[in-house]
TrEMBL record, chain A:
<feature type="transmembrane region" description="Helical">
    <location>
        <begin position="256"/>
        <end position="279"/>
    </location>
</feature>
<dbReference type="InterPro" id="IPR000515">
    <property type="entry name" value="MetI-like"/>
</dbReference>
<feature type="transmembrane region" description="Helical">
    <location>
        <begin position="154"/>
        <end position="172"/>
    </location>
</feature>
<keyword id="KW-1003">Cell membrane</keyword>
<feature type="transmembrane region" description="Helical">
    <location>
        <begin position="27"/>
        <end position="49"/>
    </location>
</feature>
<feature type="domain" description="ABC transmembrane type-1">
    <location>
        <begin position="93"/>
        <end position="279"/>
    </location>
</feature>
<keyword id="KW-0472">Membrane</keyword>
<feature type="transmembrane region" description="Helical">
    <location>
        <begin position="93"/>
        <end position="117"/>
    </location>
</feature>
<protein>
    <submittedName>
        <fullName>Oligopeptide transport system permease protein</fullName>
    </submittedName>
</protein>
From TrEMBL, chain B:
<keyword id="KW-1003">Cell membrane</keyword>
<feature type="transmembrane region" description="Helical">
    <location>
        <begin position="9"/>
        <end position="30"/>
    </location>
</feature>
<protein>
    <submittedName>
        <fullName>Peptide/nickel transport system permease protein</fullName>
    </submittedName>
</protein>
<feature type="transmembrane region" description="Helical">
    <location>
        <begin position="131"/>
        <end position="155"/>
    </location>
</feature>
<keyword id="KW-0812">Transmembrane</keyword>
<dbReference type="Pfam" id="PF00528">
    <property type="entry name" value="BPD_transp_1"/>
</dbReference>
<keyword id="KW-0813">Transport</keyword>
<dbReference type="InterPro" id="IPR035906">
    <property type="entry name" value="MetI-like_sf"/>
</dbReference>
<dbReference type="InterPro" id="IPR045621">
    <property type="entry name" value="BPD_transp_1_N"/>
</dbReference>
Length: 291, 308
């Protein structure tokens, strides 16, 4: 009996490591991980990928298509489009990561507390989440974003975080409920550990995996949501450089200048695809039951 | 059964109050003066402004305004826009567009999603399964409005099969393309859910028994397995119909369809707070009611639920 109690928490990380090693043999994972790294590098050091200044523009070149030296052509302001798309990576990736990390922390904390303590804490947290869940996401995002006169990466992320935490919270609460009554948790309680210790060193580590998986899958969705909101005119605003803004400007022009729609679309779709596939392979590795 | 319906209706009330209050408070916090937005460029005398503020209860506290709104709502009044037209009338005008789009997209989504899911479950682990799932991932990854552009470009401009935008051609021609965009974009979760649920059921003992008795493969899948794997799928389908009926803001905007979602965006841009709140309330009501209907439908599929 005491052996099982001791073995269970240790076995989970070991299994996790095995799964992660197996990942490196999966071509889909390797390709999506490499593409993701490329995007991260582009977001961190855009200067490495283009030597052209995205803000050096000349109206003489407005809307000119791809040409030598400027493979993606120019946008309507006559700025080099490739440079603009590369510099646009930063806002998309920052919002994607910022929102995912913040909602992960909120979901882990509130879901953990609600699931572990139950009762009043659970009541307050879960009912709040129910109400947030009742809001249609896009509609709520449009209304809230309109409250900000100036919208930058931080304010857009903030809105997506506030609206986005309940999903993960429910997930986390569910897995904490499962773990809470397991024998090793009871054993820890009986041995005299306080709530903080039981929660932090027994319950949380053993119930986080589903949430980690959910959140890796969500990075792509957040990037797509930001682009869609910006496209609707309630996300980022100029002078920010972002794929959503480029697509928004190009929308009315796409019959005359199709390259303005095509190139940011490719960059955006590939980014979302890479993150979704990455999350998918991580899920297969971390959570074999779901396969 | 009646008691269950009443209990569920009662449980909707706090959610409805919470959500409408949240929207109400948010709209209240919107920057800009609604009276100035209403007047446009015309100058208004201070006394007119004061009269208008009083007429729309803008001089009262948030709580009082919310109370007026909820009293109106209880009488079926969703408020009026700045020109005095009832919001319910604005919604009624646009509802057919959203309703047609939502139902068309929903049916397409069911055909695609369940089709791919069942195919994947029956050929589990083989090439066809991987290809079918990969296909759906591709559409998750393609952001909706990007996909809408591509559909417009290929089917509207190049092949000239469908109108690019607007509803001039009526149902079905004007609705097929936007509905297909919504359906493909949201079919992936449905396909995955159907697949995993069916795979689970196909492994169970009663399926083995049915096969051992010599039931035809088609009968085993459609007669025995499908019905038993449908509960999570029906839950998901209900949620998705409820979401679709709330208006597909982005697709409506790209295809220029005058639906409820478009009304919402337009009202936010013109700062007509009363319209925003009215439409949001309507969307939430539809959402809650569709979910209730779905829960009642469980009884049709799963007799065990009926006894509860």
């Amino acid at each position: 009996m005491s052996e099982t109690v001791l073995a269970t928490p240790a076995a989970a990380p070991a299994r996790r490591r095995d799964g992660l090693r197996g990942l490196l043999r999966k071509p889909l994972f390797v390709v999506s991980a490499l593409i993701t790294l490329l995007y991260l590098a582009m977001a961190a050091f855009p200067g490495l990928f283009t030597s052209v200044d995205p803000r050096a523009c000349s109206l003489a070149f407005s809307g000119v298509g791809p040409s030598s030296g400027h493979p993606f052509g120019y946008d309507l302001q006559g700025c080099d489009y490739l440079a603009n798309i590369i510099y646009g990576t930063r806002s998309s990736i920052s919002i994607g990561l910022l929102v995912t990390v913040a909602t992960f922390v909120l979901a882990a904390v509130f879901g953990g507390l609600a699931g572990y303590f139950g009762g009043l804490v659970d009541g307050v947290v879960s009912r709040t989440a129910d109400i947030m869940f009742g809001l249609p996401f896009i509609v709520a995002a449009i209304v809230v974003l309109n409250m900000f006169p100036q919208r930058d990466v931080l304010s857009v992320s903030l809105v997506l975080i506030v609206l986005g935490w309940p999903g993960g919270m429910r997930y986390m609460r569910g897995s904490v409920l499962k773990v809470r009554n397991l024998e090793y948790v009871q054993a820890a309680r009986v041995l005299g550990s306080g709530h903080t210790r039981v929660l932090l060193s027994h319950v949380m580590p053993n119930s986080l995996t589903p949430l980690i998986v959910l959140k890796t899958l969500e990075v792509g969705a957040v990037i797509a949501a930001e682009a869609a909101l910006t496209f609707l005119g309630v996300g980022l605003q100029p002078p920010a450089i972002s794929w959503g803004l480029q697509l928004s400007a190009a929308h009315s022009q796409w019959q005359a200048h199709p390259h303005l729609v095509i190139f940011p679309s490719i960059f955006l779709s590939l980014a979302v695809l890479a993150f979704v596939v990455l999350g998918d392979s991580l899920r297969d590795a971390l959570d074999p039951k779901e396969r | 059964m009646l008691g269950y319906v009443l209990r569920r209706l009662a449980a909707m009330v706090p959610v409805l109050i919470g959500v409408t209050f949240l929207i109400f408070a948010l709209v209240h916090a919107l920057p800009g003066d609604p009276i100035a937005a209403m007047a446009g460029n015309r100058p208004l005398s201070p006394s007119t402004v004061a009269a208008l503020r009083q007429q729309y209860h803008l001089d009262e506290s948030l709580w009082t305004q919310y109370w007026y709104y909820m009293t109106g709502l209880a009488h079926g009044d969703l408020g009026t826009d700045f020109h005095g037209r009832p919001v319910s009338e604005l919604i009624a005008e646009r509802w057919p567009v959203t309703f047609n789009l939502a139902l068309t997209a929903w049916v397409m989504k069911i055909v695609i999603g369940i089709g791919v899911g069942v195919y994947g479950a029956l050929r589990r682990g083989r090439l066809g399964d991987h290809l079918a799932l990969g296909f759906t991932v591709l559409f998750i990854a393609l952001p909706g409005f990007v996909f809408a552009f591509i559909a417009q470009l290929v089917f509207g401009v190049n092949l000239q099969l469908f109108p690019i935008a607007g509803i001039a051609d009526g149902w079905p021609m004007s609705f097929l393309l936007p509905a297909l965009v919504i359906a493909l974009e949201t079919a992936a979760p449905l396909a995955r859910l159907t697949r995993s649920s069916l795979v689970e059921v196909l492994r169970s003992d009663f399926i083995r028994t049915a096969r051992a008795k010599g039931a035809a493969p088609a009968r085993v899948v459609w007669g025995h397995a499908m019905r038993n794997s449908m509960i999570p799928v029906v839950t998901y389908l209900g949620l998705s119909l409820a979401t679709l009926l709330g208006g597909a803001v982005i697709v409506e905007s790209v295809f220029n369809l005058p639906g409820v979602g478009g009304l919402m965006v337009q009202a936010i841009q013109t700062q007509e707070g009363s319209v925003v709140v009215g439409v949001a309330t309507f969307i939430i009501l539809v959402y809650l009611l569709v979910n209730l209907v779905v829960d009642l439908c469980y009884g049709l599929i799963d007799p065990r639920v009926r006894r509860v």
